[in-house]
Amino acid sequence: MSANAIPVEAREEALRIIARFNQEVLAESGCCYVPRFKGKYLYLDREDFGNVGPICRLEYIRRKRHWEFAIYKYSADRYDPEEWFFPGSQLVDGTIEGALKAGMRAYH
Fold first, then answer.
1. Contact 51, 59 (CB under 8 A)
2. Do the Cβ atoms of 14 and 92 come closer than 8 Å?
């Protein structure tokens, strides 16, 4: 595992949190979050009625044991950690749950 990779325990916990959110919050909505890991990032895409698109990217900060948030900006076709003017930004709190909630509000 590379020095920048997310530890296995953190990945497993992230997958549990996302699965629980999908089951408890999104079960009857026709959508669900689809996680993917690459290096130090957890990408949260959302599937809405068969269409999958990017929502946000989380960077695991090992020393702080929390996640840095970057919203996906469709207008720029990139993730932007400096963008904080979007619906739901107040829900971002360094947790995966906060990112999931913020993503729902930003792209509903």
1. no
2. no
Neighbours of 77 (CB within 10 A): 8
Taking each helix axis from N to C terminus, what angle separates 8-24 and 96-106, rounded to the nearest 10 degrees? Answer: 40
User: Is residue 42 in some structural domain?
Assistant: yes
If one counts the domains in the chain, the total is: 1
| Residue whose entry in the numeric block shows the structure tokens 């947790």 | 95
Give 33-57 as a DSSP string: EEEEEETTEEEEEEEETTEEEEEEE
The full length of the chain comes to 108
Residue 3 lies in a domain: no
Q: Kindly report the pTM of this predicted structure.
A: 0.92
72: part of which helix (H) or strand (E)? Answer: strand 66-73
pLDDT of 108 above 90: no
Per residue in 14-28, pLDDT (tens digit) is 999 999 999 999 988
Provide the residue range defining the domain that includes 22.
8-106
